[in-house]
Write a structure and sequence with these properties.
Length: 258
């Protein structure tokens, strides 16, 4: 299937590894040019042709606009993928989550997408076309006290995307979210990831934590970042030309309700 993405310009946030790296790679494979934002580069990101790496802290007020400015130097902006995010398990329960922790979570998981979208949208409005795909999470509608601040931030992120889709749909701009369940990235499986942190607290090895989580999905496994990337790239393409204001769950059947 030709996704007609050749020479389109995309901004991807949180692009150095995990889901963002897979999205960047998939876009490049389809012929798009990608402006990729994260604090650090990685060898995997640096080796991709057609990618401009911008090292930027997207939790700052000015970082998102700096990233978008780098894309606008290429003369157009067709696709925005708001992917950056992070989670910290709150092992001590709600009462131990400080204001600073809430604000950090809300800033990176919600405000970074709002600020990047604010910076990108005027160019899309002027062009009369554009697509915005945002990585939310099943925690947006499966709230979990272990990740209480992350869940609230992702719920707000999905809500924000839906509201924005209503405002800009008539201007040729589509806005959608994808909501993954557990994905095989550092967020879950890295040295500082969910499985290691929760495992250390429960005196269980990280592999055991991950296996237990995987068993909750009907498929019995985590999603792979490339599988999320395929969905995102399809939504970003004209092939999804009448798809907007929608959330796409990719969780191996973890969510039990319709
Ligand atoms: N993995 C899952 O199970 C899962 C499930 C549902 C939703 N998600 C969502 O998917 C998205 C990607 O997650 P992932 O699993 O791919 O995570 P990951 O492997 O930890 O990658 C996170 C990416 O974000 C970048 N990043 C983190 N903080 C940043 C900051 N302050 N400024 C700029 N870049 C920053 C990281 O690069 P640097 O550290 O170099 O900055 C990295 O490129 C997130 O929104 C996450 O909430 C993940």
């Amino acid at each position: 299937m030709d996704l007609n993405l050749k020479d389109k310009v995309a901004v991807v946030t949180g692009a150095s590894k995990g889901i963002g790296l897979a999205i960047t790679r998939a876009l490049v494979e389809e012929g798009a040019r990608v402006v990729a934002g994260s604090r650090r580069s990685t060898p995997e990101l640096a080796e991709l042709d057609g990618v401009r790496v911008v090292q930027v802290d997207l939790s700052t007020a000015e970082g998102p606009a700096d990233l978008v400015a780098a894309a606008l130097e290429l003369g157009r902006l067709d696709i925005l993928v708001n992917n950056v995010g992070a989670v910290s398990p709150r092992l001590g329960g709600f009462l131990e989550v400080t204001d600073d922790q809430w604000l950090q979570s809300l800033t990176l998981n919600l405000m970074a997408a709002i600020r990047t979208t604010r910076a990108a949208l005027p160019t899309m409005l002027a062009a009369g076309h554009g697509t915005i795909v945002t990585t939310s999470s099943v925690n947006a509608f499966l709230p979990d006290p272990l990740v209480i601040d992350y869940s609230a931030a992702k719920a707000a992120l999905t809500n924000f995307s839906k509201a924005l889709s209503k405002e800009v749909g008539a201007h040729g701009i589509r806005v959608n979210t994808v909501s993954p369940g557990p994905v095989t990235t550092d967020l879950w499986l890295g040295d500082q990831g969910m499985a290691a942190t929760v495992g250390a607290a429960k005196d269980t090895d990280p592999g055991g934590v991950a296996a237990q989580v995987a068993s909750q999905a009907e498929t019995g496994r985590f999603t792979h970042p490339e599988e999320v990337a395929d969905l995102v790239v399809f939504l970003a393409s004209d092939r999804a030309g009448n798809v907007t204001g929608t959330d796409f769950v990719i969780d191996g059947g973890l969510n039990q309700s319709l």
